[in-house]
Amino acid sequence: MKYKDNWEETQERFIAWWNRSCVGRPLMKVVAKREKPIGDPEKEIPFLTPEDMYINVEENIKRFRNYNLKYSMLAEAFPHFSMNFGPGSLALYLGSQPVFAWDTVWFTDNAKDGWSKISDLRFNPDNPIWIRHLEIINKARELSKDDFLIDIPDLVEGIDILAAMRGPFQFCYDLIDIPDIIKKYMDQLDELYFKFFDPMYNSVKLENQSCSYTAFDIWGPGKTAKVQCDFCAMMSPDQFREFVQPYLEKQCNLLDHSLYHLDGPDCIKHIDALMEIKSLDALQWTPGAGNPDGGHELWYPIYDKVKHADKSLWISLYDDDLRNCVENAEKLVKRYGSDGLYLLFPTMSENDAKELIKKAEQKWK
């Protein structure tokens, strides 16, 4: 790997983390801005449109290479490249259309007028968006020359896909009015997810069958993915157990490694149901806008339940003051130990990075 010196060691540490263990200290993402770039950057050409920004794989690869000339991947940070069509591209493969914007991608709610217009959800190998996205991922792998990893895109699954297709407002009523129909579609999505996941995985996997998944800085042996249900913020605990938990468990059973993305305070009420899923390996907590970062003591009750369930933790520390990040990390290690703990730090200087790693190796064992 061109931009990563300790890749073998990094893989060992990730494997330990997935297994609720560690190698000497917590798993850590540490990215440092180099004092001097390690080469001359290629000239970047401005994107012409929002769509161009999402589909122009050649220009995006160029920019990613330029980034790695300026930033160093230390500890277990590793260079990985994403080409997403927004979060939840599985909805696009099932008939929604993308609306590209400079800051995000919106999906049209193609079941807005009712599920009767959709009928059954099926794998369509001729869907033009699916074909295009897979071609882009294949092209990215080719252009990478194995200098860095290509991520599996943010497919998303289950309830979030149905809510995107129907529209979240109307979908709230569907859960009450037509629960059996929703469960039928959930059963179909269980099958469909891997119809799309597997070709992406086969495109990006390394020789040892490992892969990385977009946005959450995770690598793992075999089929590795982030799973989620952001819509559950609007669901009761009973609804979550009925419409999400059993389907999520099926998905995790078919993955080699899984990380659940718990998004915001309104989703905390489902933590007990999540921890009951034995095949789920780890939890990632997103505190939400305006709230303190993952290192704050306010979130310890969440982490207590995760550790009690013998699962691994993914915690992002992004306080504006790096000293606060390091102090909170130290508190987390003291409370939970280093086993199964993944700490992600904000970008810092090379000197600060060296001091942080030295501290972790000496005191966070």
Q: What is the secondary structure topology, with strand pairs?
A:
Layout: H1 7-18, E1 27-33, H2 50-55, H3 57-70, E2 71-75, E3 80-81, H4 90-93, E4 98-100, E5 105-107, H5 128-144, E6 149-150, H6 158-166, H7 168-177, H8 179-204, E7 211-213, E8 218-220, E9 224-228, H9 237-243, H10 245-254, E10 257-263, H11 271-275, E11 282-286, H12 300-308, E12 312-316, H13 322-336, E13 341-344, E14 348-349, H14 350-363
Parallel strand pairs: 1-13, 1-14, 3-6, 9-10, 10-11, 11-12, 12-13
Antiparallel strand pairs: 1-2, 4-5, 7-8
Query: Distance N terminus to C terminus?
Result: 28 Å
**Can you tell me the CATH class?**
Alpha Beta
Q: Helical percent range? A: 40-55%
Task: Choose one word for the global shape.
Answer: globular
Rounded radius of gyration (Å): 21 Å
- Helix and strand string, N-terminal first? HEHHEEHEEHEHHHEEEHHEHEHEHEEH
Largest sheet, if any? 8 strands, mixed
From the 3D coordinates, which CATH architecture would you assign?
Alpha-Beta Barrel
Q: Spans of 5+ residues with little confidence (pLDDT < 50)?
A: none
Count of individual beta strands:
14
The helix count comes to: 14
What does this structure look like?
By secondary structure, this protein is of the alpha/beta class. Helix content is 43%, strand content 15%. The chain has a single domain (7-363), classed as TIM Barrel, CATH 3.20.20.210. Strands 1, 2, 9, 10, 11, 12, 13 and 14 form an eight-stranded mixed β-sheet that branches. The protein has a two-stranded parallel ribbon with strand order 3-6. The relative contact order is 0.13.
